[in-house]
Amino acid sequence: MPYCEVGSRQNATGDANLNNGIKIFYRTYGQGPTKVLLIIGLAGTHDSWGPQIQGLTGSVTPNDDDERRAADGSDNEAGFSGGGIEVCAFDNRGMGRSSVPTKKSEYTTKTMAKDAIALMDHLGWREAHVFGHSMGAMIACKLAAMVPDRILSLALLNVTGGGFECLPRLDRHTLSIAVRFLKAKTPEQRAAVDLDTHYSKGYLEEYVGSNTRRAILYQEYVKGISATGMQSNHGFEGQVNACWTHKMKQMEIELIRSAGFRVSVIHGRHDVIAQIYYARRLAEKLHPVARMVDLPGGHLVSHERTEEVNKALIELIKASEAKTEPHDWTNLPEKSLGWMATRMPLIRKRTDEGNCVSFMRNMFEKLHLYLLYLFGLFALAFENARRTFRSIKPARIGHSIT
Q1: Cα–Cα distance for residue pair 279/268, rounded to 1 Å
Q2: How does pLDDT run across 34-78, given as a tens digit for each residue?
Q3: Dihedral angle sign, alpha carbons of residues 175, 177, 180, 184
Q4: I need a labelling partner for 48 at 20 to 30 A (CA). Which of 86, 144, 230, 396 fits?
Q5: How far is 174 from 218, CA to CA, in rounded Å?
Q6: CA nearest 200: which of 259, 268, 142?
Q7: Pairing state between β 211-212 and 151-157
Q8: Which keywords, in A-to-Z order, does the entry hold (predicted)?
Q9: How many Å apart are CA 164 and CA 277, to the nearest integer?
Q10: 389: number of Cβ within 10 Å
Q11: DSSP assignment of 58-124, as one string?
């Protein structure tokens, strides 16, 4: 199996204590001069990129499976007949077949971006198109800011800015999902809650033949989770820590904006995990090199709207190769950044109005965060109480025996 050991390649950066012995499992697909690195999100494996791997290379058969690859000669959706694109997808540390460090401090988007750089070095890739989903998009942002000269284009799917922006909308639906997620202990329970997390309700209730998509996907999810196993506590808590501590500084945003490559921010407007408001705000910060692609889908919009997502990714690759000018690439209004930049000094002078708006916005964000924090404490207390009750509850005998 293909692995990349990241420790020896990152000792010089001062992260030896975080990376010694860490191995990243990866797979490559397709052949050609165009290189694409796919970075998956929280609790996902490289297999989650299946629809995009198929669309970009024409096959989901990995290159190390020579016998099967020889029998699969289909073309890809991009029109690169003969396999003009080579894709690499991998399992982030803490998930799948990659190493699972035990300390939360060993999981940050910067550290995981260095894993990706080590993998590019391992593959001999000087440059690549980098596409990330959710947490993987956060990692991709860090990667692009760290080595902008090695990025050909950047696609950010269902992304947020990290920290409190990772928190979902506070409503009955998301609270129900959170409780079910905490209680899920089996592949069947996890599969059921994952469906509501990943897809929009309308999509799940559509019929394909005599069954709903929910019923079909449920069986696939149970099979997939059973095969890979439930994510370990160390891996899950570590990856959550990476999301929570992620933040893009203004200097990093400027590095991406000035690097010369194009960016696509792709988001499902019904996403219950990553709110589209924050994705759009990030796209506006990256104006004029960014384009916003708003699709009617959920958090896993790459599966729900495969054709549209693949088309957007292919357009990004072709725009990069054609060196499309920023004003021809972006679909964001000029005032998204430029107008605000020129008006900022005037706005700052209006201290009373400006401070009031800023204060109210901060108050609402803190209130949202506080309510979610309280709910998290309640959910954890409920779970601990339930476990304690089970441990001290006396066994019933007599009439219960039949």
Answers
A1: 10
A2: 999 999 999 999 999 999 999 999 999 999 986 555 555 455 555
A3: negative
A4: 144
A5: 19
A6: 268
A7: unpaired
A8: Hydrolase, Membrane, Transmembrane, Transmembrane helix
A9: 13
A10: 9
A11: S----TT-HHHHHT--PPPTT--TTT-EEEEEEPPTTSTTS---S-GGG--HHHHHHHHHHHHHHHT
Please name the amino acid found at residue 254.
E
What is the C-alpha separation between 160 and 9, in angstroms, rounded? 29
For residues 45, 51, 52, 57, the Cα torsion angle rounded to the nearest 10 degrees is 110
Position of tokens 């396999």?
A: 83
Q: Which two tokens stand for residue 125?
A: 């890739």
Report the b/e string of 259-285 with b at 16+ CB within 10 A.
bebbbbbbbbebbbbbbbebbbebbbb
Q: Are 288 and 145 in contact (CB under 8 A)?
A: no
Give the separation between CA 283 and CA 278, rounded to whole angstroms: 9
Q: How far apart are CA 27 and CA 87, in angstroms?
A: 8
**By the 8 A CB rule, do 173 and 143 touch?**
no
The residue written with tokens 């692009």 in the block is 144
- By the 8 A CB rule, do 232 and 262 touch? no
- Helix, strand, or coil here: 247? coil
Q: Which helix (H) or strand (E) holds 195?
A: helix 187-198
User: Percentages helix, strand, coil for the chain, rounded to the nearest 5?
Assistant: 55, 15, 30
User: How do 85-90 and 23-29 pair as beta strands?
Assistant: antiparallel
Q: What's the pTM?
A: 0.81
Q: What residues have CB less than 8 Å from 228, skipping those under 6 apart?
A: 45, 47, 96
Mean of pLDDT values over 271-289: 96
CB atoms inside a 10 Å sphere around CB 293 = 23
